[in-house]
């Protein structure tokens, strides 16, 4: 084992010990907490970079998977954080069961010493667009429902239950889409998104001062204009999603869509990935996407990173068909985490 990997492992285990202590509710001792300092995220007074994977949702993607996945991700993949999702359609169909499964997975992740991002996995915008669901997937037809009242109900209950755990962050909305035909990053819908985010944030702030993660438009790939029109809440940071087909062939595609935001606020790439044999949106290789994305974006900008998805089913898959061995993409991510 290389010294670099050994050092990374020691740092991860040391961080895990601190994170476990941070699970103590605010007010019960000297629990460390997150803070936003310029374009850095701090925890317990020190700059931190959240590095890990999205594991999907506990109802569908994680159905049948063992809870010791979280220990494995912390120990062997050297993750410091995971992103756990909730589909709006599952929440509408059976909020009690969905919330019980969310609590179970969050508890397992926190026990393993991981920070947790809880993600409301909506795709669309209220009254404008809702992502269609392929019937073959086995998801409810409204899985990605873009319903404001439903989102408020989720965040009301989620912030009440998890809002005092200082190791948990709230991602307001997975992938906002105001116009499903807009394939350029223009920033034109940010004022509309911002108004919705402020309403959801107001609901959360009645119960929690957790770090909140807000996305831009175009399936969370468009952060143009956000730097000049920030959400006023000082504990809001921003998410960005990036897959191989976004503006393929445009040399400045990634800086253009980031809109200069990483220079002034923390940005978490809460989804990215590639698949050699995937559909067009995610089709890519280490050479034409993974290596340049890490080299030219994640590392020089020190963006936080949650690769999607720790699954053998949800694409792009970090796991091979056996559900345990890393896929080609998964090995790329695992190696990246070991170096970071």
Give a description of the structure:
With 340 residues, this protein is α/β, with parallel strands linked by helices. It has one domain (3-339): TIM Barrel. Helices cover 35% and strands 18% of the residues. It has helices spanning 3-22, 69-75, 88-93, 95-111, 148-162, 190-205, 217-220, 253-258, 286-301, 328-339, and strands at residues 34-37, 40-43, 46-48, 51-56, 81-86, 115-120, 123-125, 129-130, 168-171, 175-176, 212-215, 236-242, 267-272, 304-308. The strands form three sheets. The protein has an eight-stranded parallel beta barrel with strand order 4-5-6-9-11-12-13-14, surrounded by four helices. Strands 1-2-3 form a three-stranded antiparallel sheet, with no helix packed on it. The protein has a three-stranded mixed sheet with strand order 8-7-10. A hairpin with a 3-residue loop joins strand 7 (123-125) and strand 8. Helix 5 packs parallel to helix 6. The longest helix is centred in the N-terminal third of the chain and has 20 residues, at 3-22. It is globular and about 45 Å long. The model is unreliable at 1-28 (pLDDT under 50).
